[in-house]
Amino acid sequence: MWETRSVQVTVQLPHDIAEQAIEVQKTDPEFLSRVVLYGLTRRSIYTHLRERSRDQASDDLSASRAI
């Protein structure tokens, strides 16, 4: 599918959630990888859409000033 590589991520979680994350990492590490990938993908899409929206607003402002 994609070329991948390992990364190490350190996060601060509330104790109970940290315990759940440790258990999930032991029992289903692929799930945790998919959750992180999903979150980063959503952030990337949001950032792209926000930048595009800003660019479009800037273009609209420039066009209205030219009139």
Average predicted confidence as pLDDT: 88
Sheet with the most strands?
Answer: none
Helix content: over 70%
Contiguous runs where pLDDT drops below 50 for at least 5 residues = none
Note the gap between the termini: 50 Å
Q: Which structural class best describes the helix and strand composition?
A: mainly alpha
Percentage of β-strand residues: under 5%
3D shape: elongated
Number of strands: 0
Q: Using only CA atoms, what is the Rg?
A: 20 Å
Could you state the oligomeric state of the chains shown? single chain
Write the H/E string, N to C. Answer: HH
The helix count comes to 2
SSE arrangement:
Layout: H1 15-27, H2 29-66
Helix pairs in contact: 1-2
Any key phrases for this structure?
67 residues; mainly alpha; 2 helices; 76% helix; 0% strand
In short:
With 67 residues, the protein is mostly helical. It is built from two helices and no strands.
Structure description:
The chain is mainly α and 67 residues long. The chain has a domain at 28-66. The protein is built from 2 helices and no strands. The chain has helices at residues 15-27, 29-66. Helix 1 (15-27) packs across helix 2 (29-66). The longest helix has 38 residues, at 29-66. The N and C termini lie far apart (50 Å).
